[in-house]
């Protein structure tokens, strides 16, 4: 770890940034040292993304100072930040899909040959040297289109190094990666540290922070809370500082005596995707679909709700058949679906918060064919307040909210329909620990009110903490049903991997 008296490569000093009446950052401060990975953590809405955009030159701070090598800098554009050696690797890379990997890396600084043309051999050699430096293998000649998210991130890192970046900011880089891909990314980050780069690492996953980072800065409500060496912190202490209070049970599951069967799925099948899926969910019950990526969990709930078609099988709500392939029929039957991809499938990002909340009920809120603004606003306020959503104004575009608050708007939208069956696909992916606890509390309250809840989750602690029953899927089939009392990580994983259920 760098000496505390060493000059940081980059230092953020009391940075302040507001958008209208909303203070997004209220005094962020931390140093980034050469050879270190530094975690920046906080709840959604804590100001992390705004700090990243200030470092990237997208936003100019209203107050405070940025220092590079001890000297004040003022970035007016992203180009100025890049020229100072700062590169941001976003969760979703933005490569030119029809250009080759080597061309993407050399973009804006293509080497030229004797007669002024682009020297493609030199581009390829540079790309290969960068990948060798990072300890990875990627073909420089292949088009960027079709690369996995993990490989796209590696290309972005190589591109940053080609531009002589010394500070790399990685904003939720592992959210869409598999375990193997995460390990490869970590190896790359360690190589960057060994080369003397400073890495700012933003993640909600504490196991990643403790495995990779040497220092941690915690933010809350836009303000700096603390900066400490990782060995001086425990996970419970980080959580307490993030949320500003002792966090109660992360999985506040209420004990409920299940009622009558509300949702009944029988013999559901779709060629090449899932086969003979059968299960029931009772009023007041939370049933989790667990399994490895590609097991068919999300595809099943999409078919149950009618987003995707099905080749056979039936879906009944309260004993009444629901027409296949029709989300409208599913909604009319009392079903609601909170999808895995909230930005693409759950929200209309350019519409206001209140319009997103009331979209499924726009007909009920209309008078003489016109949507009544007052009724819409009252309905949206009722549900956003219940979910403790943080926003400036209900008329603001929903795309201006943090990820966790966007998830709350998706939940508010469907809870406003007062569903009999609530299907939630990865309900807490990409949101902070405090918001996770709130979402879990809400799910538990809904079940206690008699709602039948179906939850798809890749997080085993969430499955074990919230489910009354666990249905384990493998290769498109339900291979095990495990009651809450018998559920364990070992039992679920053994079934998911085709090894049967352990005693």
TrEMBL record:
Main location (coarse class): membrane
Every ABC transporter domain range: 10-246, 256-500
UniProt cross-references to Pfam families, sorted A to Z: ABC_tran
Keyword annotations from UniProtKB, A to Z: ATP-binding, Cell membrane, Membrane, Nucleotide-binding, Repeat, Sugar transport, Translocase, Transport
Gene3D superfamilies in UniProt: P-loop containing nucleotide triphosphate hydrolases
GO cellular component annotations of the record: plasma membrane
Annotated membrane topology: Peripheral membrane protein
GO molecular function, one term: ATP binding
Source domain of life: Bacteria
Subcellular location: Cell membrane
Listed PANTHER family: CARBOHYDRATE TRANSPORT ATP-BINDING PROTEIN MG119-RELATED, D-ALLOSE IMPORT ATP-BINDING PROTEIN ALSA-RELATED
Protein name: Putative L-rhamnose ABC transporter, ATP-binding component
């Amino acid at each position: 770890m760098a000496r505390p008296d060493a000059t940081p490569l980059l230092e953020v000093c009391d940075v302040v940034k507001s958008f209208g009446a909303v203070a997004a950052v209220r005094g962020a401060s931390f140093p980034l040292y050469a050879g270190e990975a530094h975690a920046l953590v906080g709840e959604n809405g804590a100001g992390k993304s705004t700090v990243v955009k200030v470092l990237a030159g997208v936003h100019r701070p209203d107050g405070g100072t940025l220092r590079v090598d001890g000297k004040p800098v003022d970035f007016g554009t992203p180009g100025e930040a890049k020229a100072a050696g700062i590169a941001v690797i976003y969760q979703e890379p933005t490569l030119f899909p029809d250009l080759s990997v080597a061309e993407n890396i050399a973009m804006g600084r293509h080497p030229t040959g004797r007669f002024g043309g682009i020297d493609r051999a030199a581009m390829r050699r540079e790309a290969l040297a960068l990948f060798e430096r990072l300890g990875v293998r990627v073909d420089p000649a292949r088009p960027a289109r079709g690369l996995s998210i993990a490989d796209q991130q590696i290309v972005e890192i190589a591109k940053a190094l080609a531009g002589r970046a010394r500070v790399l900011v990685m904003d939720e880089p592992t959210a869409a990666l598999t375990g193997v891909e995460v390990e490869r990314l970590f190896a790359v980050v360690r190589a960057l540290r060994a080369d003397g780069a400073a890495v700012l690492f933003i993640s909600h996953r504490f196991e990643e922070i403790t495995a990779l980072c040497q220092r941690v800065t915690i933010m809350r409500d836009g303000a700096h809370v603390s900066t400490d060496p990782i060995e001086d912190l425990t996970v419970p202490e980080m959580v307490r500082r993030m949320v500003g209070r002792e966090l109660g049970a992360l999985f506040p599951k209420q004990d409920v005596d299940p009622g009558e069967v509300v949702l009944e799925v029988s013999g559901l099948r779709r060629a090449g995707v899932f086969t003979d899926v059968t299960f029931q969910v009772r009023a007041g019950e939370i049933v989790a679909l667990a399994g490895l990526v590609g097991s068919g969990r999300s595809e099943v709930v999409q078919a149950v709700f009618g987003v995707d078609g099905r080749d056979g099988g039936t879906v009944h709500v309260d004993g009444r058949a629901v027409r296949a392939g029709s989300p409208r029929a599913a909604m009319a039957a009392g079903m609601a679906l909170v999808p895995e991809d909230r930005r693409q499938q759950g929200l209309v990002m350019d519409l206001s918060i209140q319009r997103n909340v009331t979209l499924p009920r726009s007909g009920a809120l209309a008078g003489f064919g016109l949507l009544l603004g007052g009724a819409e606003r009252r309905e949206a306020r009722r549900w956003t307040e219940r979910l403790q959503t943080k926003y400036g104004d209900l008329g603001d575009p929903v795309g201006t909210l943090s990820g966790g608050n966007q998830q709350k708007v998706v939940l508010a939208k469907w809870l406003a329909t007062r569903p009999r069956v609530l299907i939630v696909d990865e309900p807490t992916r990409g949101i902070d620990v405090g918001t996770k606890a709130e979402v879990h509390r809400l799910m538990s309250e809904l079940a206690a009110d008699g709602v039948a809840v179906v939850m798809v989750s890749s997080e085993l602690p969430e499955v074990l903490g919230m489910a009354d029953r666990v249905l384990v899927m493998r290769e498109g089939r339900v291979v095990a049903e495990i009651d809450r009392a018998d559920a364990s990580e070992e039992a679920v994983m053994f079934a998911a991997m085709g090894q049967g259920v352990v005693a």
